[in-house]
């Protein structure tokens, strides 16, 4: 007789939960994404004790029928895709149909929901993977998900959680990013009965940045807006007098999804070469819009990592739009020195900087190697010396900054690029830094 058997669904969900729900912040991310996918205009997130003892996400989205309120807890149950073809054109934030199944397997979970326009709503109670109650009730339109005692029955997980304060900070950092990613949604974040921030949902990105990160930070941002070859870059980047000691504020959103991508980081940081000192990092709240088929978000269950089908074009789009925005903002010396040191013709430079203009969408994108000769490393010191008054400008620290745990190193352009050598040369590596 064989020794292999198919695992019970609740055990399978528990295993999957390891990938989807690492900590309270990952549960909040999934629940808030569900609220966004449901078309919410207002999303309120409340946590207690870092989200471990209590976590609630309330939205005014489409809500769920009584049947869906139960079936949403099953693994691979989703309303967002139907077949494999849909995977190639995902616009919803969710699609794997596993978040609620995973979350419900590691917490005491209640869903209170009512379809828009329905007479009444439904409450579903699921305790650590087992549905223990379903009831009809007069709930508001939309959905509220409440999780209590996260990982209470999974000691192995519980012991890997950090202090309540650290977990709470991670949730807050996530909420801040979620809020700026959708300025058209009004977000409210409450931790331990204190309102931490709220955005108005007026659709204005600068207002959302102001509400979330504060006046000083918002004041140091300059707009970036460019479009070429089906890729649109928009948002805000920091002016060179604002620098940071880490990458925490390099925020990228692709089709409104918060992503982490080495390609995007490298493009951004390379564009700042000669503007900010080596070892310092810029900030950005940058949105890329591209065709859903140009990017693969299905790399990992957390959906934070992405793969681009044409990486170089994405790199160029970010690099040139940032570079152009910086040039437009900052006086010419830097540009002139760069032109001279790179031996660039006026025509080439104009084509490059033309990328940043939405009105003159003309220039064919130049590759980085066109602009930056491979074997011309830059001096380690910035090409342009900062203006006298910039020297006196104190380096701003944002309103709330997570403690810096690791010293971060400049990131090289991905080594798979044929132009990586050229780009790498532009990032003055710290002594002893090896690729
Ligand atoms: P996915 O988001 O990948 O589809 P989830 O497990 O997160 O998977 O959710 C399963 C389904 O439950 C969703 O496809 C959606 O139909 C429904 N759902 C979840 N959360 C909400 C919500 N806040 N409002 C309306 N429907 C929801
Ligand atoms: Mg989901």
Query: Count of helices?
Result: 16
The helical percent reads: 25-40%
How does the major sheet shape up? 8 strands, mixed
- What Rg do the Cα atoms give? 24 Å
Bound molecules: adenosine-5'-diphosphate, magnesium ion
Beta-strand portion reads: 15-25%
Based on secondary structure, the structural category is alpha+beta
Low-confidence stretches at least 5 residues in length (pLDDT < 50)?
353-435
Overall shape: it is globular
Total strand segments: 15
Mean pLDDT: 78
Through-space gap between termini: 53 Å
Q: What strand line-up does the widest sheet have?
A: 5-4-3-6-2-1-7-8
Summarize the structure in words.
It is built from 16 helices and 15 strands. The protein has helices spanning 9-20, 24-37, 66-71, 84-87, 99-105, 155-158, 164-181, 205-213, 215-219, 262-271, 311-329, 333-342, 346-354, 368-371, 388-392, 420-426; strands spanning 42-48, 54-59, 108-114, 121-127, 130-137, 142-148, 186-191, 194-198, 221-228, 231-238, 250-254, 257-259, 284-289, 295-296, 307-308. Strands 5-4-3-6-2-1-7-8 form an 8-stranded mixed beta sheet. The protein has a 5-stranded mixed beta sheet with strand order 9-10-13-11-12, with helices on both faces. A two-stranded antiparallel sheet has the order 14-15. A hairpin with a 6-residue loop joins strand 3 and strand 4. Bound molecules: adenosine-5'-diphosphate and magnesium ion (MG). Magnesium ion is lined by residues 30, 33-34, 94, 99.
């Amino acid at each position: 007789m064989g020794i292999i058997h198919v695992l019970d669904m609740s055990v399978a969900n528990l295993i999957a939960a390891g990938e989807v729900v690492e900590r309270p912040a990952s549960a909040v991310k999934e629940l808030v994404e569900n609220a966004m996918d449901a078309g919410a205009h207002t999303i309120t997130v409340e946590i207690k004790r870092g989200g471990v003892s209590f976590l609630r996400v309330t939205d005014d989205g489409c809500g769920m029928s009584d049947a869906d309120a139960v079936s949403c807890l099953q693994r691979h149950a989703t309303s967002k895709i139907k077949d494999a073809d849909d995977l190639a054109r995902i616009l919803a934030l969710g699609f794997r149909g596993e978040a609620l199944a995973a979350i419900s397997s590691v917490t005491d979970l209640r869903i209170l929901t009512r379809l828009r326009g329905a007479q009444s709503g439904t409450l579903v109670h699921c305790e650590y993977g087992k549905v223990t109650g379903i009831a009809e009730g007069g709930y508001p339109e939309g959905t509220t998900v409440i999780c209590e005692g996260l990982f209470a029955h999974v000691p192995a997980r519980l012991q890997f959680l950090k202090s309540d304060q650290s977990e709470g900070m991670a949730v807050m950092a996530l909420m801040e990013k979620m809020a700026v990613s959708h300025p058209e949604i009004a977000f409210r974040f409450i931790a331990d009965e204190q309102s931490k921030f709220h955005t108005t949902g007026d659709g204005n990105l600068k207002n959302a940045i102001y509400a979330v990160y504060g006046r000083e930070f918002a004041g140091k941002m300059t707009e970036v807006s460019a479009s070429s070859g089906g890729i649109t870059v928009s948002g805000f980047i920091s002016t060179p007098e604002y620098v940071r000691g880490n990458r925490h504020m390099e925020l990228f959103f692709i089709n409104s999804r918060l992503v982490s991508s080495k390609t995007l980081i490298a493009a951004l940081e390379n564009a700042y070469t000669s503007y900010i000192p080596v070892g310092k990092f810029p900030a950005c709240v940058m949105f890329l819009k591209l065709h859903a088929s140009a990017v693969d978000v299905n790399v990992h269950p957390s959906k934070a990592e992405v793969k681009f089908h044409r990486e170089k074009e994405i790199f160029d789009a970010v690099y040139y739009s940032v570079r152009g925005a910086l040039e437009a903002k900052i006086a010419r010396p830097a540009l002139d020195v760069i032109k001279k040191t790179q031996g660039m013709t006026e025509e080439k430079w104009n084509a490059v900087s033309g990328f940043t203009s939405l009105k003159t969408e003309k220039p064919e994108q130049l590759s980085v190697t066109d602009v930056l000769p491979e074997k011309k490393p830059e001096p380690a010191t910035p090409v342009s010396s900062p203006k006298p008054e910039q020297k006196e400008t104190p380096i701003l620290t944002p309103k709330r900054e997570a403690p810096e745990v690791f010293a971060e190193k400049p990131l090289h352009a991905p080594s798979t690029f044929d132009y990586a050598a050229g780009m790498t040369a532009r990032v003055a590596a710290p002594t002893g830094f090896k690729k």
